[in-house]
From TrEMBL:
Membrane topology: Single-pass membrane protein; Single-pass type II membrane protein
A molecular function (GO) term: glycosyltransferase activity
SUPFAM superfamilies: Nucleotide-diphospho-sugar transferases
Name of this chain's protein: Fringe-like glycosyltransferase domain-containing protein
InterPro entries per the UniProt record, alphabetical: Fringe-like_glycosylTrfase, Nucleotide-diphossugar_trans
Keyword Transmembrane: yes
Residue intervals of the Fringe-like glycosyltransferase domain: 120-202, 264-469
Keyword Transmembrane helix annotated: yes
Keywords: Glycosyltransferase, Membrane, Signal, Signal-anchor, Transferase, Transmembrane, Transmembrane helix
Family: Belongs to the glycosyltransferase 31 family.
A GO cellular component annotation in the UniProt record: endomembrane system
Cell location: Endomembrane system; Membrane
Amino acid sequence: MLSINSQNGYSVARCFLLWSLMPLITAKGNDVESPTKIFDADQPSSESQLDLRDVVFVIQSQRNSFHVRQAEKLRKDLLLQTQALQESPPVILLLHTLSDNEGDWSILPLLPDLSSQFGKNSSWIMFLEEDTRVKLEKLHEVLKTFDRRKEWFLGKPLHDEESTIIHHYAFSENPAAFQYPDFSAGWALSIPLVNRLTSKIEEEPLKSDFTIDLKHEVALYIWEDGKGPRLKGVPELCTIPEHNPRAQYCATTVSSQSPLCGQPVKSDNIFIAVKTCKKFHSDRVPVVKKTWGKQASLLEYYSDYADPSIPTINLGVPNTERGHCGKTFAILRRFLSSHVPNTDWLLIVDDDTLISLPRLQALLSCYDFSEPVCLGERYGYGLGQGGYSYITGGGGMVFSREAVVQLLASGCKCYSNDAPDDMVLGMCLNALRVPVTHSPLFHQARPEDYAKEFLAHQTPISFHKHWNIDPIAVFNKWLKNDKHTEGLEKSTKDEL
C-alpha cells in the first residue's frame, strides 16, 4: 500500500512538499502563504475555476540514482514555475518514494491510495515521465477547459498500424481503432475517473498477469471494453523537442537531448555475451558480424556447439527450446572469472538482437557502475498482486559488475536449464531489493511492432527478432551510425 499517512496525521506527501518549498518560502518571506493555508484542502475550488493546487503531479520516477536526480530536477522546475506564477503549489509526488510495492510503476495498484488521499479535494492526477518538460501556465489553461466533474482520460494518442505481439494482437481487424497515451507527453486522469477505477479495483482485484506495454494496458483497463472512457487526445500535450519552434503551442514537450552525462563509456569497458545455438550459426551470427558486432571491442558467442570458425564457446549447457536460464547463469559466472577481461559492464543479448553500441556507451555514462545496475526494457509479472519486474532478454540486458556480484553471491540459481532467464533474474533481483531500471530505448520487438509516433522522438538503442524483416536493413535504418553516434565514436577514440 502507498505509504502516504504518517503517525502524526500529516501526509508524507505534504511534509515532503513543505520541505521542498522551504527555500521558496524563505525567499519570498511574508508574501508567501503559510503552510497551513497552502494545504487547506477543506475549501475546494469553485466549479468555474481550477487552481494549480487542485492538480496532483505524479512523476514516474525510478529508484536508480540517475533517475532520482532526473525526477528531482523536474520537481524543482515545477515548483519554480509555480513560484513565478505566484500560485499555491500543487502536490508533486515521486513515484519511487510512495511505497515499497514493486508494482507501483504499473500505476493501477496506486489508484486506490491516490483516491483515498486526493479523491475529495483535488481535480486531476497528472502523470509525467522524468524527461517530460512542462509549461505549467499552459498546462493549467488546458486543464481548465475540461469539466472536472466528469470522467476524463487525457493524453497524446498513439495507435498501432498493424496488430502486434506486444499488445497481444489486440484489435487485429482494425489496429488503428484503439488509441493509447504516449507517456512522454504526460497524461491525466480526472478525479471522478480515479475514484470509479478505485471502486472497480477494490471490487475486482487486479489480475496477476504480464505487464508488457504499460501505456497500452492502462488504456485498455480504463476503456473496459467500451464501458469506460476512451483516451481524449489533447493537441497541447506534445512530444516534439522542447526547443523546437513549434513547441510554443505545447503545454508539454520532451527533452531534446539524447542521454549523455559525460564521456561515453569506452567500448572496451563493456563485455558482450551473445547467446546462440548451432542451428542459428549460419543465419543469425553473420547478421551480428555484418552490423553491430563490428562496433564491439569485447564480444563472445556462447552456444551449445564449439565452432572455431566463428568462434563460439560451448559452456556445457545444452540448448533448450524455451528459456535459457542455465546458459545465462553460466555467462554471469564466466563474466566474474579470469577467462574474460575485467570490465565494469556486461551486456547479454540474443543472436537476433540488433543494437547500437555507441548509443549504449552514451547511455551508460549516466549510470554508476559501482551500484547494482540492471538496465533494459522492463516488463512485469503479477504486479497487481505482489509480483516482480524483470528486464526482457530480447532487447538486451545490461548489468554492472556489482549487480552480477550480488546476484551470484545471493545463491540465486535456475530451477531448470530451460527456465526463462530474464524472469528468474527478475525474481532474484526482487528478493535482493535491487531495482530493475527501465529505459524505453531498448525494444523487445521489431520497429514495426511500435507506434511510429512513439519511435519518432526516440534515439533507439535496440530492437529484436528477424521475423519477416531484413535485419540488416532495419539496423541500417534505425541503429546505424548517424550524426549522434559519429560524435560519440569520435569522442571515444579521442580518449583512447
